[in-house]
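Researcher: Here's a chain I'd like modeled. Treat it as a single chain, no partners, no ligands.
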Amino acid sequence: MKNLFSKSRVEAFSDGIFAIIITLLVLEIKVPHISNYESSQELMQALFRLLPKFTGWIISFFTIAVIWVNHHKIFKQIKHFNNGIFWLNALLLLWASFIPFPTAVLGDYPENIVSIVLYGVVMASMALSFTLMRIYALRHPEVLNEDVRLDSFRKGTWLSLLFGPVTYLLGAGAGFLHPWLAINVYLAIPVYFIFAENQQQ
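Model: Modeled as a single isolated chain. Structure tokens:
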């Protein structure tokens, strides 16, 4: 099939969306307003009430950073884009661009199970789109560079499934035990991808 998509243009488009997502995340943190502008105690209390928003922002910021890094890695392994890879990448961008909304909801309602589950489901959907892109590449190896080792790529694919959508859904389930248990699971996922040496493929 003729290559209809320029890899460089798709990559530039994707990078632009990631940059916008990162910006939108921090815009959800508003400067608190207090009645007594000279009261340090009142300002400290107002800032402390923003702690859930800061926590959600940090988790989502590092998650987007991990998405960008892994997105860059998989793009290096793809030789050319066909219709399937293009639309799976668009699906990934769709879910990634939605991340600021559940992040804001989680920051406003950190102990509400609905916000906990919403965040986990959106993140699981985003992570699943990554896995689907990798599975598609395995089923259509002609889109991959010749030097890609399919056994390593396959291992990385199943690890992305386990430590992506599966773990996010487990985190959402953990929210029924305690909200901050779920939040710790959500934080552990980007930490894993940042430090795990076996996620190089």
